Amino acid sequence: MPLESAYQGYKTAPDFSHVSRDKMIEISRLAVASEFRRRSGERGSPIGLMDVKDLASAARTFPILPLSLYLSIAAYGELCGLHDTYGYAMMEPRLVRLLKRFGICFKQIAPAIEYHGKRAAYSITLDEVFDGLKEDMRQLYSDLRHSLENELREMPIGSNSACKR
Length: 165
Description:
alpha+beta; 5-stranded mixed beta sheet; 6 helices; Acyl_CoA_acyltransferase
């Protein structure tokens, strides 16, 4: 996994020995055009987050992009039957804190290192997403899952190797 190469040369690399390789996915590099994700006040942030303590009181709209992306990954995983799969991500600690506010609670599995800025390795399973998800996020998850399910249904069989239907 690319995450492993980020820790090459570090003594504190994540330990993946307890997980079979076919039960691992990496979800580190979520790409959104910078023109789309950044608003006024976010120019200095690589992930489009302002440095604020309370999102509700900030002059900012709901953080729909990061939440929707991670909830969509969870929905896709559920639709593909990946319940016993571990998702791994290399993320900034402040993105992890943002996601945690909404119940998406990644576990840190290695210390932060310098990798395109300060980042650390994290893991999560679908059950952990579902168990922690805040009540008001469940409807967004359900809507995203329904939309993905419809799109997958319309795809020709065999065109999506990650999700066997």
